[in-house]
Amino acid sequence: MNVAILGCGYVGLELGRQLDENGHDVVGVRRSADGVQTIEDAGFDSVQADATDEKSLSAIPDVEALVYAVSAGVRDSDSARNAYVNGLRTTLSHFSERNSPPERVVYTSSTGVYGDRNGDWVDESTPLEPETERQEILVGAERIVREEHDMEWTVAQFAGLYGPDRYRLERYLDGTVAERYLNLIHRDDAAGAIRFLLETDSARNETVLVCDDEPIWKPTLAEWLAEQCGVEGPTVGDATSERARSSKRCSNEKLRELGYELRYPTYREGYQDAISAYR
Questions:
Q1: What residues have CB less than 8 Å from 159, skipping those under 6 apart?
Q2: Is the predicted pLDDT of residue 241 greater than 60, yes or no?
Q3: What do you get for the CA distance between the two ends of the chain, in Å?
Q4: CA gyration radius, the chain
Q5: Considering only the top CATH level, what class is 2-161+186-212+251-263?
Q6: Is 44 exposed, middle or buried (0-12, 13-18, 19+ CB in 10 A)?
Q7: Which H helix or E strand runs over 184?
Q8: pTM for the predicted model, two decimal places
Q9: Per-residue pLDDT averaged across 203-219, rounded?
Q10: How far apart are CA 137 and CA 186, in angstroms?
């Protein structure tokens, strides 16, 4: 299978490595020379192109599957709209008009599209209820993927990403934690789930929540990490932003039913490397 990964960053690099190891032809796409170098360092092909610049997209070869994992980088709404709406629309328009368009597009979204559910459970059938401008942009991007081209699609909604270089233990060990549920997915499983969906030809024209087995109350996670690291427990306080107040429990039942087996089923397995390094 030939796969192009646009926005080949934190998850994309791991996805590329996994696909390459399994014998697929992979090209990673970044807009900066430094970004391209990280792809080359990972050991698979690279192309320098900008998702918002249709002319530059011509440098990407024809592929069977396109993964759009472009990140806004910063949290302001203009950057989010440029990455998730303008870049996505430009990319899908460009590839759909090729003589040999991709058979399938996988778009990596966020569980943020469900808004705040006051700790209730959500799954793929739950209505999208964005509460911030950024969340509304993410919902709009999902609509583009579903409606504005003729290629088959999959929307993969990632929970909170963590893993190498993103364990952020200091947030739990040194800061104040708010009372809300967290939904997590280790980077290796976020990439692994996309690889699995591509290799098994699963979830065409469907949405899949990509999260681990156990939504966790944030103070409980912080207390467990403190105990494992041998330090005092956390301070519990009020959330500092609307995003930090958002609380829901995401179900991965569909992902499990499709057949994906998590390498890190819960935070307990996923944080072991970070705990060992801390200690």
A1: 111, 183, 184, 185, 209, 210, 211, 212, 250
A2: no
A3: 42
A4: 19
A5: alpha beta
A6: buried
A7: strand 184-186
A8: 0.95
A9: 97
A10: 24
